[in-house]
Amino acid sequence: MKRIRLGVLFSYIILFIFAIITVFPFIYMILGGLMSFQETTSIPPTLVPHHFEWSNYAKVFARAPFGRYFFNTVLTASVTTIVSLFNSLLGAFAMVNLRFKGKGLIQMVLLSLLMVPGEAIIFTNYNTIAHMGLLNTYVGLVLPFLTSIFYMYYLQSYFGSISDTIYKAAMIDGASDWDYIWKILVPMSKGGLFTVGLLSFISGWNSFLWPLLVTNEDTMRLLNNGLSAFASDAGSETQLQLAAATLTVLPILILYLIFRKQIIKGVVRNDLKG
């Protein structure tokens, strides 16, 4: 019994250490956004500000069009989430429930495309967007991300755990594929759909390289690109960068804290058991 208790205690100590390592950067980011420039650059580093500089957040909005960055990020992340979720839903349904010629070949092609890293095709996408005249536009920002093979295959595995007899029974009762999707499949798969939607939104929110390539105007930049506004040839205003980073990260943290149960349910698929 003593060995078991010592083992459990040791496990908790290890978990606590890793929790501190994981959480500390976020805590320091929040505290650093309330420090002065001297405190953020001091050696040894200052962990707690002597005076809370709340004016740093006002300076963030005064120094750069941060409100515009927020609008652009929310708009592009929302559009890519809604459209990619809709496309992934229909694609996963077709691969699981429909029977058509060449289905196996299509699945093999899609799986092969899933293995291609995004970095390998980003400049091809850029050339396409440039030739279409979509640079510095919202369409150019979201177009390459309106569908996702990964999300489709995630939902395909999710839908595959639903008994095929439910679909057959719905067809016998005279329901169309559209009726089955919205009246049966979607309500039974809320956890998986919510997980895909949240992952897509986080991906769009954290987007950095693609907006950097297809936009060169401040009015079209996203939040992560806007952090560069607080750096100059004279150096970086680290206290403002930390304040801006806090404003960028907090919405995602709040979303996670609110919907963490739904995320876990979507991953383990508890709502499909039994």
Automatic annotation (TrEMBL):
Q: What is its main location?
A: membrane
Where is each ABC transmembrane type-1 domain found? Answer: 70-259
A Pfam family it matches: BPD_transp_1
Membrane topology term reads: Multi-pass membrane protein
Write out the annotated subcellular location. Answer: Cell membrane
Instruction: Name the InterPro entries for this protein.
Output: MetI-like, MetI-like_sf
This protein's UniProt keywords: Cell membrane, Membrane, Transmembrane, Transmembrane helix, Transport
* Gene3D superfamilies, per database record: MetI-like (1.10.3720.10)
Official protein name in the record = Sugar ABC transporter permease
